[in-house]
Amino acid sequence: MKNTRFTLGLAQLSKIDGDAGHQVIESLQEICPDLARFTIEYPFGDIYTRQALDLKSREIATVAALTALGNCTPQLKVHLNAALNVGCSEEEVKEVLLQMSVYAGFPAALNGMFAFKDVLNERKA
Amino acid sequence: MKNTRFTLGLAQLSKIDGDAGHQVIESLQEICPDLARFTIEYPFGDIYTRQALDLKSREIATVAALTALGNCTPQLKVHLNAALNVGCSEEEVKEVLLQMSVYAGFPAALNGMFAFKDVLNERKA
Amino acid sequence: MKNTRFTLGLAQLSKIDGDAGHQVIESLQEICPDLARFTIEYPFGDIYTRQALDLKSREIATVAALTALGNCTPQLKVHLNAALNVGCSEEEVKEVLLQMSVYAGFPAALNGMFAFKDVLNERKA
Amino acid sequence: MKNTRFTLGLAQLSKIDGDAGHQVIESLQEICPDLARFTIEYPFGDIYTRQALDLKSREIATVAALTALGNCTPQLKVHLNAALNVGCSEEEVKEVLLQMSVYAGFPAALNGMFAFKDVLNERKA
Amino acid sequence: MKNTRFTLGLAQLSKIDGDAGHQVIESLQEICPDLARFTIEYPFGDIYTRQALDLKSREIATVAALTALGNCTPQLKVHLNAALNVGCSEEEVKEVLLQMSVYAGFPAALNGMFAFKDVLNERKA
Amino acid sequence: MKNTRFTLGLAQLSKIDGDAGHQVIESLQEICPDLARFTIEYPFGDIYTRQALDLKSREIATVAALTALGNCTPQLKVHLNAALNVGCSEEEVKEVLLQMSVYAGFPAALNGMFAFKDVLNERKA
Fold first, then answer.
1. What residues of chain A lie within 8 A of the CB of C38, using their CB?
2. What is the DSSP letter of C108?
3. Which of B68, B103, B107 sits opposite D106 (nearest CB)?
4. pLDDT, tens digit (0-9, with 9 covering 90-100), for F15-40
5. How far apart are alpha carbons E41 and E48 in whole angstroms?
6. E52 φ, ψ to 5°?
7. Nearest chain F residue to C69, by CA
8. Same domain membership, residue F125 and residue F74
9. N or C: lower Cβ tally within 10 Å for chain B?
10. Does B86 share its domain with B120?
């Protein structure tokens, strides 16, 4: 029987990440279902359900962090989609990526922007 | 003669970072005034003056990125102050820091939170 | 009322980190008690209680990761203590730190070793 | 004439990494044979031959560090194989990867787990 | 009308990066022309035009930094080409990459060397 | 009996890092003399003695990498001194640090510059 955190987390994952989130969870089932469960329970069940920050601001924070870290392009793409899903405009997302040139350097900002170019092309297709 | 980017950047720096920003610039004058000038012109003159993203969202992005990178506490503290200066509530800043546990791990989130504790204590003093 | 994950996590934290862990939790109470709770529930309640890997191996993994990341010395010190608490010998811990010269470079290994020097001195005091 | 460190290192490389290690060394011969030699001499000749830590613990440390760094997937895959070669069970390796969600964030843990999925599939093929 | 920084930067980009640099700029035009412009103005217009350090030393610094960071292979390849373009010998570039094993670990050095292998093959083709 | 690599490495360490290098080695003797020995043998005995790149270029590479990584200030300070010791002018070192704003962001460049300010003050004292 699944607990409340899992149920709430799964609903929040659907709302934010849509199909992309479910594909990540699905792809973990064979190799490590507990990591799938923890990913739903802690980030989505515990954190993204909190009311103290709106989802748009949360996705701005996540896009900024993943662009700056620069070593997790698949997750960045999921959250570039998520940012658009929860109400960021394309222009706002680009500004966040652009701003990362200041804090993490131009290569990080360029790679973030190219990831967003892919995301926008995939959404059009 | 200072150019427009410098003038606009200096005004934006004052608005966002207040005294803390000026102290950084001041402390660079002896060692490398050109880095002080570039810091005003590019981040503050070129980027933070753009209208496509509000300052509150910009500071959320910066706090998230610097917390995730985890190797630039002095700059993180400047921007934790800046986030409060441009309209983030204490609770919103804490949520951004908390959320970084998901993307950069608990040590990064803890160190960000302890930096914010210092900042809040300094603002009260 | 505290949940089972919290109760189990707190017991595991005591077993592994001793006083140092409780000091971290305590120092979070004023600024963000929810981060304290999450730190107990997820890392210690969900992860460190799992049986599939012994605690000694878990601490070897944590010491290696924190040394390689190189930007979270306070947490590294907690886990250098923890490694000794759960049964690693001093020599084994030193080997892990030494080995990080291969994967994260000599500066990371040196800083890890100096942190361990501090930890050993504090334990003697 | 090859020195002792090289000879011992090459034997240790064969024992730990098997064919994957030799392929890395081979692929360096054309571009920079000295880097191939140093890779055998220092990590494998000097470090992995030391008796103070067993090979299983060494691979746990290496898998943890490379997963946390997150920017060297090819080397992580070599050492995910190596961990299995020297006696880690699949479950133990998964626990190390899972635990990295705490210290380096969920994206790092997810990418490590997906790399392990690839490794397990390649070993079955 | 383009400003002086842009004009100087574009000339410097051509001199250093050749076609590879222009392709990066071109690929940004659709998604974010302002990032293309900033990339020309600040790094190439403001920094690479300064006389206090020769271009060969600048490219040694850039190749070292990007190899150590390890999360921006496309930009590293552009600058491995650039290093050769401004007068580094192949041997000198290899030495810089080799030396990164000391400061960022063997995986970073290996990945840098494999990127250079690709670059040399592409230049021969 | 010390081997040739150690003897050559120690001489090279003295030439490049002077007293600061010896202090690092000395401070390791109590906690882990083997790490002291490896630090002399591999970086200084194997790498810095190679003729294919001059010492000035080597220190430019090291200063760039350590500034970009941003998590090893003590080692950066040793190499900021070393850069001056082997013939870099103050202006050249500042240019390398300044240039890192492009590749690792302004916080990394600022922290590098403040470390250099400390180094210059210590050399005057």
1. 42, 46
2. H
3. B103
4. 999 888 899 999 999 999 999 999 99
5. 10
6. -75, -10
7. F71
8. yes
9. N
10. yes
Select from B77, B72, B64 the least CA-distant residue to B17.
Answer: B77
pLDDT at A2: 66
What pLDDT shows up at residue B118? 98
- Partner chains of F (3+ C-beta pairs under 8 Å): A, B, C, D, E
Say how many CA atoms lie within 13 Å of F4 toward its Cβ: 3
Contact list, E109 vs chain D (CB under 8 Å)? 35
- For D8-75, what is the HEC assignment? HHHHHHHHHHHHHHHHHHHHHHCCCHHHHHHHHHHHHHHHCCCCCCCHHHHHHHHHHHHHHHCCCHHH
What value, to the nearest 5°, has the Cα angle with vertex A112 and ends E37 and A82?
A: 125
Say yes or no: F86 and F102 in one domain. yes
Examine the domain organization and report whether F103 and F73 are in the same domain.
yes
Q: pLDDT tens digit string along A5-58? A: 999 999 999 999 988 889 999 999 999 999 999 999 999 999 999 999 999 999
**What share of chain C has pLDDT > 70, as a percent?**
98
Q: How large is the greatest C-alpha to C-alpha distance in chain E, in angstroms?
A: 48
Residues of chain E with pLDDT below 50 are none
pLDDT, residue E2, reads 66
Q: In which residue are the tokens 């507990």 written?
A: A34
Residue whose tokens read 């989802």: A55
Question: For residue D18, what are the CA distances in angstroms to B42, D61, D91, D94?
Answer: 51, 19, 21, 21
What is the CATH number for D57? 1.20.1290.10
What ipTM is given for this predicted complex?
A: 0.96
Q: Kind and range of the H or E element at F32? A: none
Report the distance separating Cα F11 and Cα F9, nearest Å: 5
pTM: 0.97
Give the chain E residue nearest A106 (alpha carbons).
E39
- pLDDT beyond 90 at A1: no
E71-95: pLDDT as tens digits: 999 999 999 999 999 999 999 999 9
User: Quick one: which of C109, C75, C74, C76 has its CA closest to C94?
Assistant: C109
Same domain, C58 and C38: no
d(CA A70, CA B99): 18
Q: Which of E83, E82, E73, E85 lies closest to E118, judged by CA?
A: E73
Q: Mark whether C60 and C91 lie in a shared domain.
A: yes
Chain C, nearest residue to E107 by Cα: C103
- D110 contacts A38? CB cut-off 8 A: no
> Token pair of C83, please?
């490694």
Q: Are residues B114 and B75 in the same domain?
A: yes
**What is the extent of the structural domain holding E100?**
53-125
Examine the domain organization and report whether C9 and C35 are in the same domain.
yes
**Cross-chain Cβ contact C62/D64 below 8 Å:** yes
The position carrying tokens 């804090």 is: A103
Number of domains forming the structure of chain E? 2
- Compute the distance between CA of residue D93 and CA of residue D101 in angstroms, rounded to an integer: 14
